[in-house]
Amino acid sequence: MRYLEEFQNPELAGGLLADIRATVTRPWALMEVCGGQTHSIIRHGIDQLLPPEVELIHGPGCPVCVTPLEVIDKALEIAARPEVIFCSFGDMLRVPGTGRDLFRVRGEGGDVRVVYSPLDALRIAEENPHREVVFFGIGFETTAPPNAMAVHQARKRGIGNFSMLVSHVRVPPAIEAIMNSPQCRVQGFLAAGHVCSVMGTDEYPALAERHRVPIVVTGFEPLDILEGIRRTVRQLECGEHTVDNAYARAVRPEGNPAARAMLEDVFEVTDRAWRGIGVIPDSGWRLSPRYRDHDAEHRFDVARITTVEPAQCRSGEVLQGLLKPHQCEAFGTACTPRTPLGATMVSSEGACAAYYLYRRLDAPGMAREASPVG
Description:
This protein is an alpha/beta fold. The chain has a domain of 151 residues: 3-Layer(aba) Sandwich (Rossmann fold). Helix content is 37%, strand content 19%. It has 16 helices and eleven strands. The strands form two sheets. It has a six-stranded mixed sheet, sandwiched between helices. The radius of gyration is 21 Å and the shape is globular.
């Protein structure tokens, strides 16, 4: 159990919790969309401090976790080629594909490099004109603008040996898919503040109205999350279902116009497979036709690779909020950070990694059952 003294402002945290307790009159199930929010919740024990009527369900907002196995295998195939320098953020190197990961490819002689920006990969391409340089472009709307900028710059500057393996996903269609699931009982959402800082909130009012759920844009600090929960519970208790911005210091309704313009230029909306979930219509981006020469999937002819998820891994259920990590039979035994079966145990934003890191190892440590299955 975490205590209020661990919060940066324990008095304010205590006031928010008192307001939630005074407001709630019946059980409510809320989903935090972002994996960063999940880690903050588990690290600070926010779910254990809340009244028992308020249940938090972990959503699919971990970009590494939702990257499908098929795309991981495409990355491994490309990275193993001798003419390729494969660049990626570090959190992708230990994500398991079919039988190996990018660390294994590097150990077997592949030129796999960790970079901190897609522009670093573009610089490597300039410095190595006789090699093919591929950047692994994954993530939600937050990381998409710099990836788009890198491709835009490659085309503008004529850097023909640079390409990107793209697996970008979008949050609003995922919320739509969650609400359309017959197993779902989510009654309110804490939307990811960093996503909305890029894209704004234009797509959320229709979702809130259509599914009659409040959507509160929330930050990532413990106090931000408590404030988001407080506002969501108040709406639910009042029978309201609107979009509320509790992260106004970073989010404007229109988002970031320059970033959105770059995305519209470089990418186009497409159906996208989510690991463990399946294909969600219009939930992703791919490079638009004018930038297709920089599409690694087409350049290296890996579009036909197909894979099958390991049966023992239940990360798909975790990503959909149907299962808490400690409820998986492999959690902490066959599946650990050293021997991961799925990306949710590897990623710095994965729910399984959060439960393992902060010692939520078994059901007795939980105050109540948290599956959204009716």
